[in-house]
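2.7 Reproducibility. Because tokenized structures are sensitive to small changes in the input, we list the exact sequence used for MFS transporter, including any N-terminal residues retained from the expression construct. No trimming or masking was applied before prediction.
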Amino acid sequence: MEKKNSAGRWMILLLLLASFAVTFMTRFVWSPVSKTVMSELNMSNVAAGSFMSAFFIGYVITQIPGGTLADRIGVKVTLSVGLFISGAATIGVSLINSYGAGLALRVVTGLGAGVVMSCCTKVISENFEQKDRGIAFGVLLVGPTLGLTVANKLGAALLTAYSWRTAFRAVGYVAIAIGILTAVFIRNTKAQGGVKPNLLTGIRIVFTTRNLVCVCFGGFFYMFLNLGVSTWANTYLNNLGMSANQAANVMTIYSVGGVIGSLLTGIIVKTFHLSMKKYLIVVYVLISVFTLLFGNTTGAAALSVIGFFYGFLTYLPNAQLNALVTKYSPAGLSASTMGVQNCVFQMASILSPMIVGGIVDATGAFSACWITLAVVNLMGVIFWTALRGE
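Resulting structure tokens (single pass, no recycling of outputs):
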């Protein structure tokens, strides 16, 4: 791990992947067990939904502080403690007998998980050359799909064999175990040159650096589309008359395409020596085209084919956005910068479902969903054209 050409960096990358994936396990283990918990604790649908929102609140709150801590005191402590907190709070949910206690623990779970992305970014920036960071982030960003899949499968299996409480305990123990591994194997580096970053450091860097502003808002509009698809695709497919299983099959194919896209995006850019600016502009345009194609297709077979390529394209930018953040960040302050960037990106998670839902309600046509997402995504191209130094 001492050298950027060390084979050990790939083992560390797998540990980062596990760290990132387990945060999605703690987030989504709620999904397969929610109906059982609702019945046991006499919770409404709104209350059940708030368990997911509570996690997200905590997750956003610690984005910027997490980056600051990673740069100031080091990744080893920040990442391992964050995973321990998230794991312990997840175990705590297994002990609840009231809605209020569960809600508070879900916020705490999110607080712990919120530091992970900034920590992973710092480790990647220190151990991978710029030309390899797209590949490294591509591997890391398999984490959300991996975590979601494991959470659903494991949660459902443990619910059936034991109880929902066992499912939460198991995921919590996994998070703590990975936290211990990070404490043992991650090197604890701090900001260079005696710099002591504070909560405003990352904000100042991002909003006074032209290229980081471009990445910030170019990424925001992309995430707006990404979250919009995740929120509304299943509803669209159900409105076409598909069964839940048929809709799930289409979205599974979409996810498979996404994983492949995430893994290949860095290899594509590195192999063909592509300009990142031109690459992102072309990919954004193609994503908007396939958004309209997907939203104007009604057959299950055609949607599966288009869905695969749509997923592939939609996941191409993500790793490159993170690689660009590390490229334009000052040395030793990549975590602080990523904390701010990711906080802005996550704002799309709040705005996209509400805005798109409001437009669909106002127009009475689901086609408005896909038109809105395609147009908003293209707005990101404006910021990529302003990117300098490519």
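The radius of gyration is 20 Å.
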